[in-house]
Amino acid sequence: YVTFINVNLHESAVDPTATAKWCKFDDDVVSRTTTDDAIVSNFGGEKAMNTSAYMLVYVRDNAIEQVLAPIPDTQIPQSVSRTFELERMTRNREKKKMEEEQLCMTVALVTPDIVATNHTYDLVEQTIINEVIPHETVWKHMMTAELYLFVNDKLFQKSDLPKFIECSGDMRLDSILSSEFEVLYVEFSNNKDRPLNDYLTTRDILFFIKYYDAITHKFNIITHTMLDCHKRISLYRSHLCEILGLPTDTELKYYIEHSPMTVEYIDETNKNTLGRLVEDQDGSILIVEKAATSTPINNAKVKMSELYLRVEFEFHQAFHNKKVEEEPIEPFLLKFSLDQPLTDAAKEVAARHDVDHRRILFWTRMSGNRQEACFDDYSIHQCRQLMTRQIHDPRIMKVYRVQYIIMPFDVEEVSKTRMQCRLYWQLPNGHVEEATLFPPKEGTVADLLEEAERYYPYAEGGSRKFRLLQIGNSPLNNQRVYQIYNENLALADVDQRTMYKMNIQQALHARIEEIPVDELEITPGDFFCPVVHFEREPTKLFGVSFVIKIRNGELMTEVRDRLRRKLPDVTDAEFAKYKFALLSRDKLCRNIEFNVGEKVNLTDMANQTTGVPQVYIGLDHKAPSQHSNEAAIRILN
Question: Any signal peptide, and if so, which residues (predicted)?
Answer without folding.
Answer: none
